[in-house]
Write a structure and sequence with these properties.
Layout (H helix, E strand, L loop, with lengths): L15 H33 L2 H17 L6 H14 L3 H17 L10 H11 L3 H18 L2 H14 L2 H15 L5 H17 L3 H18 L2 H13 L10 H4 L3 H11 L4 H8 L3 H15 L7 H4 L1
Helix pairs in contact: 1-2, 1-3, 2-3, 3-4, 4-5, 5-6, 5-7, 6-7, 7-8, 7-9, 8-9, 9-10, 9-11, 10-11, 13-15, 14-15
């Protein structure tokens, strides 16, 4: 006779100790999955430059971190909360969170950057506080860890961190390496940041012409990621490098009406005009009118450019 849902696990042939261990493992796995969802949302809030989004994300991070402080995802939460605090101009509090990440890392004997990259965030904060020797040592330590690990995302991020701290030509070379590695990773926002820092450093070195291409790429990638704060800085750097960007990176999207934005997003998903019209209970002529207006405001020529422009 099959076991009922109300029966204990061992009624189905599973020993109670194994059942308890399995239950704990499932809870830990679910917690880490949840941590990725919340921390990814927080990272997008940092890139957006929106203080309201940052406050909401910070509340979610704090609530989730407090729910199971000994869980494996706690380091990830502390690091994300540090990013939110740094973006809100609280470097001291951010550094406290990152140092706490280091303590937990030592307690749990974590040696892989796949789980913790707090050094890459702490080093620029230390440099901003005038603690340059500590910043350089921490950034080099992170780079060595990431080289041993080998994944392009963490390695590119660590190269960008050290490139920000090292002066002159050596810093630019590190940033070039960061861009090369991040091109092969799915970390698009980190790639945009590396391109931005490379372009900015190249411009400061007096090579304004060479700075423009990485800055243009940074601007387009930041737009695609919805990272308005990064896009605005790339736009400003392009102007400083002598370029003439076509438009403010956030202004044109904000000029779309609610109806235009809804139609544009559906078209960006690959829906035809007929499908959009049926879904919104509008005529195809109305959809065509909305899309013409969207193309004009976003300064694009085809539907294939919609996803990036939005």
């Amino acid at each position: 006779m099959p076991a009922s849902r109300t029966e204990p696990p061992f009624a189905c042939g599973l020993h109670p100790d194994r059942a308890r261990r399995g239950s704990r493992a499932i809870r830990r796995f679910a917690f880490v999955l949840g941590s990725r969802c919340v921390t990814d949302k927080a990272d997008r809030a940092v890139g957006s430059g929106d203080s309201v989004r940052r406050r909401i994300a910070a509340a979610e991070v704090c609530a989730q971190a407090a729910s199971e402080p000994a869980a494996a995802g706690h380091i990830r939460y502390l690091q994300t909360r540090a990013r939110l605090r740094a973006a809100s101009r609280h470097p001291g509090e951010a550094l406290e969170d990152l140092i706490a990440c280091g303590r937990l890392e030592r307690e749990w004997e974590i040696r892989t950057p796949a789980f913790s990259t707090w050094r890459a965030d702490a080093a620029p904060l230390l440099a901003s506080l005038g603690r340059h020797d500590e910043a350089r040592a921490l950034a080099r330590d992170e780079l060595e860890r990431c080289r041993a690990f080998g994944a392009p995302g963490p390695l590119g991020a660590s190269l960008r961190t050290l490139g920000l701290i090292e002066p002159g030509v050596s810093g630019i070379r590190l940033l070039e390496q960061a861009v090369a590695h991040l091109q092969r990773s799915p970390a698009r926002l980190e790639h945009a940041l590396a391109l931005l820092e490379l372009g900015a450093a190249t411009r400061r070195a007096g090579r304004r012409g060479d700075a423009r291409e990485p800055l243009r790429e940074a601007l387009e990638l930041a737009r695609a990621c919805g990272a308005d704060a990064v896009a605005v800085r790339a736009h400003d750097e392009l102007i400083a490098a002598g370029a003439r960007p076509r438009r403010d990176p956030t202004q044109s999207r904000g000029n779309l009406t609610a109806s235009e934005l809804r139609v544009a997003r559906m078209a960006a998903e690959g829906r035809t005009n007929r499908e959009i019209a049926q879904a919104l209970f509008l005529t195809e002529n109305t959809i065509e009118t909305h899309l013409r207006s969207v193309f004009r405001k976003l300064e694009i020529r085809s539907r294939s450019q919609l996803a990036r422009a939005l």
